[in-house]
Amino acid sequence: MISVLARRNEELRTAVKERLCEGVSVEDFVHHVWRFPLDKLQVVMEQDWPVCQNHLDRYRATLEGRGNQSTAFRVICSRLLNDVHEAFGMRARDMEDEFLDSRGRPCLENAYIDGDPDFVRVWKSNREDVLPDWESVKTLINFAAIDPTRSHQADELLENPEHVFDPPHNVTLPHPFDQPRTFQTMPTTNDITDDALRIALYAKECFTVYADRAYATALLVDGFKGSLWYFDHHLAMHTLSLNFSSRLGLRYLTLILFAMAKCDMQGAGFNPLFQRLHGLSSGDRVAWTPIENPEKVGEDNCYIFPLRKGEKRRPFFVIDDWVDAAYRFVAPGTTTHSVRTGVLGGRVSHDSQTLKMTWRPQDEDHEQVILGHIMARLPYEWLAHLPLEVAFAAAYSVEDLEFPWTKMGIRLPRELEDVDPPSLHVSVYPEYQPLWEVGSVEDFKRVFVQCIECHYHAFRDAEHLHGAISERSLKVHNRLAADGRHRRPLGILTDWEIGPQPRQDDDAEHPMEIGHGSGPFTFIAAELALDIQVFGTARMHYYRHDLESFFYILVWASVHYNLNDKHRDAVDPHGLLREWSSKEFSSRSKIEFINSFYGHPDKISDLVKSECDELYTTWVRPLRRLFRAAFASMPGEGDDDEDYDFETCNGILTFDNFMRVIGVTPRRFDRDRVLPPWCHILWRQAIQASKKTKKSLRGKEMFSKELDDLAEGNAAVPVVLQPRKLAKTANIFHGFIVPEEPKPPADDECCMSGCAVCVYDLHEEAIGAYNEAVAALRTSLTSLNVPRSEWPPQIRPKGISSSPSPQQVKGAVLSAFEEIERKLELKRKEKEAEEARIARRLAQQKKRNQLVAIKEPSSVDTVLNELYEGLRWVFFSKR
């Protein structure tokens, strides 16, 4: 029987193989991945870097089992690094990083693999008592297993460099040794050896660090040959093998070691959005700089996202706390932080918010787009249970985030040719409390019912199935009650973007998820977990599967939650429920619990908290009987299932039955009720967020069409809720946004009623902000020595100063008021004159009508005349 570890390793091997790009040149790798400058690359490759023959002989002896391979290889690397630093006028001792080997050092804390890499390149620490961890690993070097039957003739290869290096398949940089018939093409196999798999497992360890790594790199050494490897969430790639027993191979090895030593944190694969703030603690206006050393990852860190089209001020988000993570290796994942929002050059807010970053397939909608569709179809009472108060929403492609392989022109593997790379979906919304902080069992019940009702109506009315119900997706929002004094817990259902799409076959539990109590399989329906275990994917996701997930949340909460103390038990789940988080045992354990095999339910009931006894007795046990009846009704193997309703288990697992079993009467609201004003505001926010999201990934034209379709498809939505026009593209000059001068208010925009905030007051503030932006832009252009003759006309100085003084601005505003008063007075006089003319015409028309009435004959005379004329035509028709 294959062990769980072996099965997961094989799943990882398959995942990497399907995403593997081969034939990358070393030059491309060190320049695009490690950000090594081209001029230095050319210098390194244009000269020889000799190594003592004794050092090569000693290393060759280790390949035959004599001596330590790590020590011998480290001597060669140290020699090359010293020489190349000296050639560039540097000292090797001043390097900010160093090599650490596994001999004599404490082991790293591993989650996926036993044993450490042979070498790790880490940043130096100022503290001697600090031991290396995966967060400080820049890159790693590992040796392939030694084959004692192989022969390594370093001496012969050293004298004949023409046989040592094969040409890369994709070259985007000039190769310094392009000569005809010098190289031979190396065939690609796309195989993942055990040594390559070990490299992938070490890279997987790097993805568990706090700063959520963007990618990880490694050097795999096999005798005198070596290749560079790269792993991220979408693909893996490696260079062709080089042989460093020759002069040419030593040049490449020197280039690799030097580039490895000089790469910064972004080049090493740390999240480029992760920055360090300055001026935060002092209360001054803040700025940020890249983090140079993982040791400085601590306080005053933030996320900085790329500036999008139309944005004039770049926001950032100060990280206060890490909430949770479900980060995947070569698969999508999610990280969540507690943050505070700030703007460059401004101050930071004091209100905590939640920042959620999710890697999703590029063709899938952002959560705000999904919520916009749901919002248009639900009664507004249910909207209070959706995360609609979004402060920031965006989606970024791998090109926006500047992943290295997007610039390398590599050929993607066949499995990825028709698959769009993932995009990073970002949302910032109010900070909600976790489910166990609700405060009491009664409030827990209330919040739970609100979430399950909202979930049902989103499915029935908006035709959207959530599909990812877990304790993370159920949140609590403490809103003020009507009296303004007491806070009322409100259930919020989040994580709408994950959806019911199948989980991938490499979706094993993550160390961070296990460390926080639950993993991706903890609350998944037993049938879906079985499908994933057997077929690698879920075949069909029904509404009843989400009901089953809600049921597992009740069981989990009864055992692990201290609701009165707002506390959850230790991170390690209770033994009887630990198997729920395991991909291999989740389905079996849940079925045993529901079907009462081996006395399983009785053992779990002994673990229930005393405060949750009533919850377990009145809700969990009746629901367990409901699911047991549903499971028993399913056709067995070979049974006729043509007439069986798998969607509801023949009507057993429905929302109404679920609510009836727990003794709750569902609330009913009228869909045709008018939306309150706050819904209008949230709808516009959702539309604007979806505009920016779609524009950043799919283009302006396609997204405009989608918004038009959305507006036309919802006839019940008021006109004020329809999407507005797309924002105007910003004018860019030398990388700076050229501010546009605010337009004065139109004549009919001021009501002249003495409003607290008049449109002219707002215009005056906009003029002041415009003048500040112009002054800042002039300063920046002057510091860059850009000639003033090339500046845009609207920012060129006119005379001494082009910025109007406050008195001039005030005078302009007063003049505008006088002009608007004059025009309004003129309109009033014209209106009075028109009304007078209409009154005169009405009076004249009335007189004419009276005269006509006097002259007209009576109705009797008219009838007699008509009768007489008719008789004449009858009797005298031939006259």
UniProtKB/TrEMBL annotation:
Q: Superkingdom of the source?
A: Eukaryota
Domain Fungal-type protein kinase span(s) in chain numbering: 184-374, 433-556
Q: Which UniProt keywords apply?
A: Coiled coil
Q: Which residues form a coiled coil?
A: 814-849
Q: Which InterPro entries match?
A: Oxidoreductase-like_N, Pkinase_fungal
Please tell me whether the keyword Ribonucleoprotein is annotated for this protein: no
Has UniProt tagged this entry with the keyword Coiled coil? yes
Oxidoreductase-like domain sequence ranges:
733-777
UniProt protein name: Fungal-type protein kinase domain-containing protein
Lineage per the UniProt record: Eukaryota, Fungi, Dikarya, Basidiomycota, Agaricomycotina
